[in-house]
């Protein structure tokens, strides 16, 4: 295969999230999050797994940073656990929580690794959920305070900030179909949550910038939504609806165009939009220095009268059929289609020129059953997945997309939300009994990619 080079200065890194790796759930004053509650609720997470210990990264961060340095990572994207900073979401800051991230940032910088901070990766303080969570406006305001508290401590060393990770998941899976914490099943609450998440982003982004943050953005799990057979008007309508619910509902307000009319009309049939206030769209449209895109898999839909829809997308039952994924699939059953990444990047770049893009997550779960006694994990499936998606990203770059970096999901095997520990996404294997880390072959492969700045 031809050699591919990425642009000079391309940022190579890896991503994780607090609840998925830190453990130390009751240490140093950390408060309860919605994921603590959810994972301890019988039937919510595979075999009752929790993030109580996870990868014990809270105690092993130095070892993990050394591993990153060994792999040659230039950037590391991690999230800050809000309940470590303000245990009840709003009260006084606990300096011990900030101390941890302070040590982590220093350890990264000492190894020449650029910290990319995510301020919210789904672990809302339970105390705030008890007061309405993302369905109420106050949560957005508290989030801006959280952002500022973190910036006050780390802002002298951290350059790149993203506010939210995948607000689609927070709203649609957390409040809509209940597959994620807090596990509510209320279609109307979904849209209240979307709006308050976006508002929280806007308020936080403005506050960060005013405090001197260098680069501020957000990470979205945008979808490449495709019609089943490309033909019918009904299919096109299905694509438009799902695209609206997943992509345009976020991209419109974030980039200053406001909520698209068709999306507003759709959500107004489900909930009285009394939560939208004059001036909100202006607040949400805070200037963006970067957009993080998480991409794993495409979405194929068909327009069908009586279609089953999907409980994660309110109002799709009766007109939309979500097509079952077609192989090859990952261990989470997600369809592998690198071309979807190219299409998505090109589309975002065309619709929002001048907005620098990062792939803030991409990767695959594969069984990785076996360390065969020699400490080797031969994850050829993962290498093929990553190779395909990097080629797809490169295609987009060569067609002019301003893609600045790629952060693999994930550095370590970790707590995969409702799937618990049974799905492994790491390029580094974690033995959860001993906490031993073993770089998989994909880690060595990625090390090569980084050192060559290409494939
Ligand atoms: C994304 C999440 C991340 C991880 C991957 C597999 O939706 O942001 O935490 O679970 O999926």
Topology:
Elements: E1 11-15, H1 18-21, H2 34-39, H3 57-71, E2 75-79, H4 82-85, H5 95-110, E3 114-120, H6 126-129, H7 137-154, E4 160-165, H8 167-176, H9 187-210, E5 215-220, E6 225-227, H10 233-254, H11 261-268, H12 280-284, E7 290-294, E8 299-303, E9 320-322, H13 338-351, E10 357-361, H14 380-398, E11 403-409, E12 428-431, E13 436-439, H15 441-452
Parallel strand pairs: 1-2, 1-11, 2-3, 3-4, 4-5, 5-7, 6-8, 7-10, 10-11
Antiparallel strand pairs: 8-9, 12-13
The structure holds beta-D-fucopyranose.
Residues 17, 20, 165-166, 169, 221, 294, 361, 409, 416-417, 425 line the site of beta-D-fucopyranose.
Report on this model:
The strands form 3 sheets. An 8-stranded parallel barrel has the order 1-2-3-4-5-7-10-11, surrounded by 5 helices. Helix 14 links the parallel strand 10 and strand 11 (403-409). Helix 3 packs parallel to helix 5 and helix 14 runs parallel beside helix 15 (441-452). It is of the alpha/beta class and 455 residues long. The chain is globular, with a radius of gyration of 21 Å. Helices cover 40% and strands 14% of the residues. The protein has 15 helices and 13 strands. The mean pLDDT is 97. It has helices spanning 18-21, 34-39, 57-71, 82-85, 95-110, 126-129, 137-154, 167-176, 187-210, 233-254, 261-268, 280-284, 338-351, 380-398, 441-452; strands at 11-15, 75-79, 114-120, 160-165, 215-220, 225-227, 290-294, 299-303, 320-322, 357-361, 403-409, 428-431, 436-439. The chain binds beta-D-fucopyranose. The site of beta-D-fucopyranose (FCB) has 12 residues, from loops.
